[in-house]
TrEMBL record:
<protein>
    <submittedName>
        <fullName>Si:dkeyp-53d3.3</fullName>
    </submittedName>
</protein>
<keyword id="KW-0862">Zinc</keyword>
<dbReference type="GO" id="GO:0006357">
    <property type="term" value="P:regulation of transcription by RNA polymerase II"/>
</dbReference>
<keyword id="KW-0539">Nucleus</keyword>
<feature type="domain" description="C2H2-type">
    <location>
        <begin position="131"/>
        <end position="158"/>
    </location>
</feature>
<feature type="domain" description="C2H2-type">
    <location>
        <begin position="19"/>
        <end position="46"/>
    </location>
</feature>
<comment type="similarity">
    <text>Belongs to the krueppel C2H2-type zinc-finger protein family.</text>
</comment>
<feature type="domain" description="C2H2-type">
    <location>
        <begin position="215"/>
        <end position="242"/>
    </location>
</feature>
<keyword id="KW-0238">DNA-binding</keyword>
<feature type="domain" description="C2H2-type">
    <location>
        <begin position="103"/>
        <end position="130"/>
    </location>
</feature>
<dbReference type="InterPro" id="IPR036236">
    <property type="entry name" value="Znf_C2H2_sf"/>
</dbReference>
<dbReference type="GO" id="GO:0000122">
    <property type="term" value="P:negative regulation of transcription by RNA polymerase II"/>
</dbReference>
<keyword id="KW-0677">Repeat</keyword>
<feature type="domain" description="C2H2-type">
    <location>
        <begin position="159"/>
        <end position="186"/>
    </location>
</feature>
<dbReference type="GO" id="GO:0000981">
    <property type="term" value="F:DNA-binding transcription factor activity, RNA polymerase II-specific"/>
</dbReference>
<dbReference type="GO" id="GO:0008270">
    <property type="term" value="F:zinc ion binding"/>
</dbReference>
<dbReference type="InterPro" id="IPR013087">
    <property type="entry name" value="Znf_C2H2_type"/>
</dbReference>
Length: 244
């Protein structure tokens, strides 16, 4: 096997050495990667993928990697028949059937199926919003929320109601609108059986039963169940005329 040609280049203050394969001219970033790559040419070493040339560190990782090319998924869910490439993926999936939620928020006690879901939820408490809009700088907890928001800048309203031809930015907004045509109210109060079209409306309604009043006046400390009630009350402090 030919000795690698070392090529050094300076990037500001950092020096980086690359290894060039004398067989095919490929540029490798480190000696370990170069050594692994050369096995493609020499044929030595049992863990080289013949499909893409990737070098695997063990027979187990090599076995899993080859399934990507073969499409093999040997792990089957006995509940719904869904198949998986690895057993950990199947175990995570089975939680959907058992309903087991092992990941608990230490702030509010809410539980989740997956650790990743808990990580995202914690941003509600920390107010962390890592996804920012490049147009207005508004931050979001989830990338999906950012993508939905960005449509408000483009003006694209790709979802249309076929009954009245009104258009909407998101599929969720269209779905909520369609309930005005169907009369569907899928959210039911467990205390009085009252029905609502949106979860937000049910949440506000539940305060009647729980007595919760989260909207507090900063002037006198009076609390209200709804924000609209607080805004109406604030006029008594500002002197703004009450609407007739």
């Amino acid at each position: 096997m030919s000795k690698p040609q070392e090529h050094t280049c300076e990037e500001k203050t950092k020096c980086k050495t690359s290894f060039i394969c004398t067989e095919c001219g490929k540029n490798l970033s480190c000696k370990r990667t170069f050594t692994c790559h050369m096995r493609i040419h020499t044929g030595e070493g049992p863990y080289i993928c013949t499909q893409c040339g990737k070098c695997l560190s063990s027979s187990e990782t090599f076995k899993f990697h080859m399934m990507i090319h073969s499409g093999e998924k040997p792990y089957t869910c006995t509940q719904c028949g869904m198949i998986f490439r690895q057993s950990p993926s199947l175990r995570r999936h089975l939680l959907l059937h058992t309903g087991e939620k092992r990941h608990k928020c230490d702030q509010c006690g809410k539980t989740f199926l997956r650790g990743a879901q808990l990580k995202i939820h914690r941003r509600v408490h920390t107010n962390e919003k890592p996804y920012s809009c490049s147009e207005c700088g508004k931050g979001f907890i989830r990338p999906a929320h950012l993508r939905r928001h960005e449509k408000t800048h483009t003006g694209v309203r790709e979802y249309m109601c076929f009954q009245c031809e009104k258009t909407f930015v998101t599929a969720g907004a269209l779905k909520r609108h369609q309930m005005t045509h169907t009369g569907e109210k899928p959210y039911k109060c467990a205390h009085c059986d009252k029905l609502f079209t949106r979860t937000e409306h049910l949440k506000v309604h539940m305060r009647i039963h729980t007595g919760e009043k989260p909207c507090t006046c900063t002037r006198c400390g009076t609390s209200f169940a709804q924000l609209a009630s607080l805004k109406y009350h604030m006029r008594s402090h500002t002197g703004e005329k009450q609407p007739e």
